[in-house]
Predict the structure.
Amino acid sequence: MDPTLQQQHFLSLPRPDALEGPQGGAPDTSTLAAHDFDVDTRTGFMPPQQPLLRLPEAWNVWEDVLEAAMRGRLQLGGKEGVTEEERRASEVWREGVRNMPILPTTPLKSSELLLRRAHLVLAWLLHFYIHTLPPSHPPTIPAALTLPLLRVSRALRLPPVITYSDDVLYNWRFTKNTPLADGHGNPTLPTVGNIDAGTTFTGTRDEAEFYLTSARMELRGTDALEVMRGIMDEVFVGDAIALSRVTSYLLELASIIEDLGEMLMRVKEVCSPQVFYDEIRPWFRGEDSSAGRWVFEGIERDESLERPRELSGASAGQSALVHALDVFLGVDKYSHGPSGASSSSSTSSSTTTASTSATSNSTSATSTSTQEQPRSSFLKRMQEYMPRHHRAFLNHLANSPRPLREYVLANSTTANPTASSEEDMARGEKLLEAYNAAVQALKVFRDKHMIIVALYIVGPARRAAAAKAATSAFVPPATPSATSSATPLTATPPASTPSGAPSAGATETHGEKKHGKEMRVETRGEARGEAEEEGREVLKGTGGTDLVRFLKSVRDQTRGALIPLPEA
Ligand code: HEM
C-alpha cells in the first residue's frame, strides 16, 4: 500500500482544535480547508472533545433564558389540559425573550465551537418560544431572537432551526464521574458508556435517551468510517490481495450496520413511545409542520439577512452517518433516487392533511410558500441541515474517483464472466456476496427503523385520532369496550408497556434471509401505511416527508441496489 496515500487521506488528518485556532502561523483549517471534514478517526461525526456547555459571560442572557425554560418545565402551547398557571408561566418566559437585548454575534465568529453553542442555544430558544405559543397565536419570533439566530446560522451555513447537530452531535456532556483526562493528560474521548444528553425540552429521561441512542450509534459508526477508509485504500491498490481485503472489510461493514440496527431497536428499552409522541416530538416541529408561516420580526433591520426558504424540524435523517453508508455503497441513487425524492416532494404540495391528534402533535395542513416550492431529494434537503463540513464529506465521498459499486461490478463474476481462472471467479463472487451483505444489512436497518417509526409515531397517531373521533362523535358510556369499538385500531398491537406503548413483540418481522438474498419484512407500521394511503390521513415526519410512504420507498429502493448473483 502506498504510504503517502494513507498520510494524506482525509480521514487520517488530525482534526484542528477550533478553540486553539491556527497553530504556528499555519492557515486555519478548522473551517475552510477542503480536506477538513470534521470527521474524527476516533469519534466519527461526533466531536472528540466535550462540546462547549456554556457561552462566555457576554452571552449570559441567552444561556440564562434557556436555563429558565428548562427549569420552568414549560409546556407545549397546544397540549391538551395545559393549566392557566402553565400558560402564564410560558407567557412570562416569552416576555423575557422579547425583552432580551440584541447581543452581538461578531465575536462568536472567532471560534467554530462558540458558533456551535450559540446556534444550539438560540435554536432551542426559538423552539421553546414557538411551541409554547397557544395554537391560536401567530408564530412570531421577536427581534432579540431573530437577529442573532439568523446571523449565527448564516455564519455556520445552517438553517435557523434545531438540527440534529443541536440535539445530538453537540448536545452531550461526560457523565458525572468521568475524568476529563487520563493519567497521562490525554483528553477523555466520548464512548457509548460515558456520555449524557445536555439540553432537553421535557427534562425526562426518555428524551435524554432518545438523543443518546443516536449519539451512541454515531460513535459505533466510527468503525464503519474506518472500514470505509480501509476499503478506499484497497480499491486504490486494486490487486488480488486488495480484492480479498475489500471482501473482508465489506463483511465487517455489514456486521457494523447490523449492530447499528440493534442499537436503534434498543431505544424501546429507554424511551417510551407514548412519551415521545405526546411530549417530546412536538417540540421538534419546523415551520413546514406548523400551523402557520413563522414571522421573523426585525429581519428588515439587517439587509444581509434573508428569510429562510425552508425550515424542517430536526430528524435523525440529518445524520451524515446513514447517508455516508448510502453514498459509499452507491445505494444513494437507489435509496434516495427519484422515487424517494418524489415521495418527499409529494408532501411539498399543499396537501390537506387531517390532524391526527388533539395535541399539537399534528399533521397540520397549512399551505405556506415554503411548501409550495418544489423540493429536491430528501438526502439533498437534509444535507442543508448538517454541519457544512459533514456536507462536504458526503460530497467528497460521492465524487470518489473509484466508486465501490463500480469496483464490485467490474470485479464480480456478473460483470466479468471471462475471469482468467476459477480462483478469480470465486474471489469475484465472494466480493459480490460481501457487497450484497452490506447493502442487505442497510436494508434490514431500514426495516428496523420502520418498526421504530410504527411504534413511535404511526401507532400513537392512530390511537390519538381514534380517541379524538370517539370523543367528538358522541360521549360514550364509560365502559371499557366503548373506546375499542369506536376505533379503527383492530390491528393495533394490544400488548403494552406500562406507558401504553406497544411492546417489542407487537411488531413483526419474518422471512429474513441474510447476505444478499431477497428478503421480505412486513411491519405493522407498513400495513398501517398502506391503510393510510387508502385512507384519510397523511402522517408527516419532522423532516416534512409523507413518512410512511417515504420510508417504505427508501427501504424498497435500498433493496433494489442488491446486485443479482450469477445463475448457477
Ligand atoms: C424513536 C426513534 C426514531 C424515530 C421515531 C424516527 C423517525 C423518522 C421519521 C419519521 C423519518 C422520516 C423523515 C422525516 O423526518 O420526515 C426518519 C428518517 C430517517 N431516520 Fe429516523 N427515527 C428515529 C431514530 C433514528 C435514528 C436513531 C437514526 C440513525 C441515527 C435514524 C435515521 C434516519 C434516517 C437516515 C432517515 C432518512 C430516511 C432513510 O435514509 O432511511 N432515525 N426517521
In short: Residues 1-34, 339-375, 478-536 have pLDDT under 50 and may be disordered. The chain has 21 helices and four strands. Residues 213-214, 217, 264, 267, 276, 315-317, 319, 322, 446, 449, 452-453, 456-457, 541-545, 547, 550-551, 554 surround protoporphyrin IX containing FE (CB under 6 Å).
